[in-house]
């Protein structure tokens, strides 16, 4: 039986796009199209194999003579040039001219190599299992991309739902549920804060005279004023109807709280235009501060601010009253 099978270099290149063909003196005669992509910035033809590759195993193949004798030997090697891609190879001596053919593969480094060198499916033999792996990697990447997009949408939807759950739909202010979270956080962290309870004066007359649409417009304008008169880290809450609670985070003294309250009243007393009508309201306010209490808790502070608010109502409205309580020194704080 005839054992020699003639095969062209074109056929070799088609079957083994990662091959390197060496001359008897260890120089590169030709290389497959895929391997050429790995060395796109250099001219491979004529270069010593050991100038391009660092042969790690076996040690006997590190010299040209050892490489030429390594019939069927499996190589572990890497590119000398960055990014120093690791490769596997098998050596086949060529009887006719005394050279060798080395067929290379990436092994588990294929995914990195595809990214590093911009390889495509056309750079591999059609029967190479790497093609199947690349299909799986591509499919996984597509699935992961869709999962990231889905997660982003779900996260956005969750944030939007939480925001909606904590927001008063008419005014855009925080609602009672949000207020509970804010005060719980302040108490848990032991932070000082000021509390202001505000109720609109003469608001019922606006609804009765001009209708609920006018009342809604007034509430929206009031909300705008309250936000403008507070800081970014303060919280403005509509707890229902025409009642609002303002939480001032951080240390705050009575004088400043009083100034803010009077400024709010002054701005709210300016008529609010609606559909040609002038809607007039004002505000009665009750205030207190966490520093007044030995162990401040939200329910007690809200009750004290509420009592101060109604003290403002009884005193003629359009005014602010500081809650009268027993402070930690046994003195009465009032306003």
Automatic annotation (TrEMBL):
CDD domains: GGDEF
InterPro entries: DGC-Regulatory_Protein, GGDEF_dom, HNOB_dom_associated, HNOB_dom_associated_sf, Nucleotide_cyclase, Rev_trsase/Diguanyl_cyclase
GO molecular function: guanylate cyclase activity; nucleotide binding
Documented EC number(s): 4.6.1.2
Residue ranges of domain GGDEF in the record: 191-325
Keyword line: cGMP biosynthesis, Nucleotide-binding
Enzyme class of the recorded protein, top EC level: lyase
Pfam families associated with the record: GGDEF, HNOBA
Descriptive protein name: guanylate cyclase
Source organism of this protein record: Actibacterium atlanticum
């Amino acid at each position: 039986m005839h054992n020699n099978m003639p095969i062209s270099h074109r056929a070799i290149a088609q079957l083994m796009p990662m091959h390197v063909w060496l001359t008897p003196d260890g120089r590169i005669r030709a290389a497959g199209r895929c391997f050429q992509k790995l060395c796109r910035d250099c001219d491979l033809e004529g270069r010593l194999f050991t100038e391009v590759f660092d042969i790690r195993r076996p040690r006997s193949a590190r010299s040209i003579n050892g490489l030429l004798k390594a019939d069927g030997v499996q190589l572990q090697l890497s590119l000398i040039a960055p990014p120093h891609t690791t490769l596997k190879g098998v050596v086949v001596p060529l009887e006719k001219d005394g050279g060798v053919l080395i067929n290379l593969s990436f092994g588990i480094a294929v995914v990195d190599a595809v990214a590093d060198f911009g390889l495509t499916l056309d750079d591999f033999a059609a029967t190479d299992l790497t093609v199947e792996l690349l299909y799986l990697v591509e499919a996984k990447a597509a699935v992961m991309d869709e999962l990231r997009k889905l997660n982003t949408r779900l996260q956005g939807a969750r944030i939007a739902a939480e925001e909606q759950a904590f927001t008063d739909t008419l005014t855009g202010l925080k609602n009672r549920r949000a207020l509970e979270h804010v005060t719980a956080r302040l108490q848990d962290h032991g932070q000082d804060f000021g509390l202001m309870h505000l109720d609109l004066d003469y608001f019922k007359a606006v609804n009765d005279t001009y209708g609920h649409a006018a009342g809604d417009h007034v509430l929206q304008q009031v909300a705008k004023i309250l936000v403008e008169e507070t800081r970014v880290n303060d919280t403005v809450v509509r707890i229902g109807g025409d009642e609002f609670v303002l939480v001032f985070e951080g240390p705050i003294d009575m004088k400043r709280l009083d100034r803010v309250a009077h400024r709010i009243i002054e701005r709210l007393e300016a008529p609010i235009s609606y559909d040609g009508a002038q809607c007039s309201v004002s505000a009665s306010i009750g205030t207190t501060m966490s520093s007044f209490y030995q162990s401040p808790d939200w329910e007690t502070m809200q009750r004290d601010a509420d009592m101060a608010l109604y003290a403002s109502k009884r005193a003629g409205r359009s005014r602010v009253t500081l809650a009268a309580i027993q402070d930690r020194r046994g003195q009465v704080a009032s306003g």
